[in-house]
Each structure stands twice: as structure tokens, then as C-alpha cells.
Amino acid sequence: MKSALYLKFTYLLVQVFLTQSLMANITTNNLKNKTIPTEILAEAKTALSFYPSLKNTPIEFVIKPSMKKSFMKAQPKFSTLLKPTYKRAYLIFINESFTLEDKKLDLKDIPSDVLVGWLGHELGHVMDYKERSTLNLLWFGIRYYFSGNYIRKAERIADSYAVSHQMTDYIICTKNFILNHADLSDKYKSKIKRLYVSPNEILKIVEEQEKAKQAQLN
């Protein structure tokens, strides 16, 4: 009896060790070709762990002193824009301190889970960009700049990628943080509601993806 219990306990320990080793390898592989500031290293590693397909994609996370219009944004690296899609590199800019209508939001004050969700959303944009040709990306940039409707469409695509990569809870956490944050103006929150996907819409995306999976199985 004792021997059986010992073997079972040993088996469980081995399983835990193998699982931890696998997760460590996934994390290490996902950091290949990545440049990440120490301030967001833990959160970026967590967000990247949900996107194993990005393990060979060069991504540079850059903290900037000030970006007027957004807290984070993802874009292709200009010097690689004309290269084949599989050789393209990407930048994710993060605002160190976001000031809007005398309201200030500092990077250091953002909860870890919210930051993971925000980074996961931007990685969703990277997934979208990887599927686009150079000409398509240029046309994307023009439409994104001039059309509110296209912004909403592009943001929904990014969120859909995040949801399909099991980041639903993080994404909802981030959106609730923005919409409920006391230091952000009602005007800014109205803009967010108009141009970006709401927490309820995220749940609809989850439902849509589940239905699509069921349809494929049937």
C-alpha cells in the first residue's frame, strides 16, 4: 500500500515538474527576438505567453515619455515594412505618463492584470498586422487615421485575437479599469465607448467564437 502511494506521489511530482518545465520553455521561447524594459517585464512575459505563434516575431516594447493621443499603440517597424511579412518587426509603444485634460495616468500606477490585458490587446494588433501585406498596412493606417468606424473595426479585430488566445479575463479587466477610472474624464470615457469594444461586447465575441467552434465540430 505504502509502495503504491509512494509511486503515485512520485508520478504527481514528475508531472508537476514537466508542466513547469514546459511553461518555462514556452516563456523562454516567446522572449526570443523581444526587447522589453524591466518596468513591464513580468507583464509582457505573461501577455506573450498567450501568443506562442509570436515566438519568432521580433517585437520591441518601448516606454516613451509622452504620447498625446494614446496610452499604448502597436505598429510595424518602419525599417522592416518592405520586407516579407515573416521578416517584419513590430514596435509596441507604452506611455510612461498619459495626460489628458489635466488628468494624469502613470504607468507605475496601473495594476499588473490591467497592464497584461493592455499589452495583450496590442499583441492582438500585431497578430492582425502579420496577416497584412505592406500595401494593405499602408491603407490600414490611412483608414485608421481618418475613420472612426474603421478604428472601431480594427480594435474589435485586436480584441478578437486576444479573446481567441484565452485572454478574455485580462481584456475585460483592462476595459473596466479604463471606464471606471476616476482620474479619466467623462469626455475621454465617452470616446472609449464610441471607438472601442465594451466589456459586454467582449462577451459577445466569446460567444461568437464558441458558436464558430461548435459549427466546425458539427
Tell me the layout of helices and strands.
Blueprint: H1 2-30, E1 34-35, H2 41-49, E2 59-64, E3 72-76, E4 90-95, E5 97-100, E6 103-106, H3 112-130, H4 134-146, H5 148-164, H6 168-180, H7 186-195, H8 199-217
Parallel strand pairs: 1-2, 2-4
Antiparallel strand pairs: 3-4, 5-6
Keywords:
218 residues; alpha/beta; two-stranded antiparallel sheet; 6 strands
Write up what this structure looks like.
The chain has one domain. The termini are far apart. 59% of the residues lie in helices and 12% in strands. It has 8 helices and 6 strands, in the order αβαβββββαααααα. It has a 4-stranded mixed sheet with strand order 1-2-4-3, covered by helices on one side.
Give a short overview.
With 218 residues, this protein is an alpha/beta fold. It has helices at residues 2-30, 41-49, 112-130, 134-146, 148-164, 168-180, 186-195, 199-217; strands at residues 34-35, 59-64, 72-76, 90-95, 97-100, 103-106.
The rounded Rg comes to: 20 Å
Query: What is the average of the pLDDT values?
Result: 84
Secondary-structure-derived class: alpha/beta
Strand content: 5-15%
Number of helices: 8
State the major sheet.
Answer: 4 strands, mixed
Low-pLDDT residue spans: 5-14, 16-28
State the distance separating the first and last CA atoms.
46 Å
Q: What sort of overall outline do the alpha carbons produce when their principal axes are compared?
A: globular
Order of helices and strands: HEHEEEEEHHHHHH
Q: In which order are the strands of the major sheet placed?
A: 1-2-4-3
Fraction of residues in helix: 55-70%
Please indicate the count of domains: 1
Annotation, overall tally of beta strands: 6
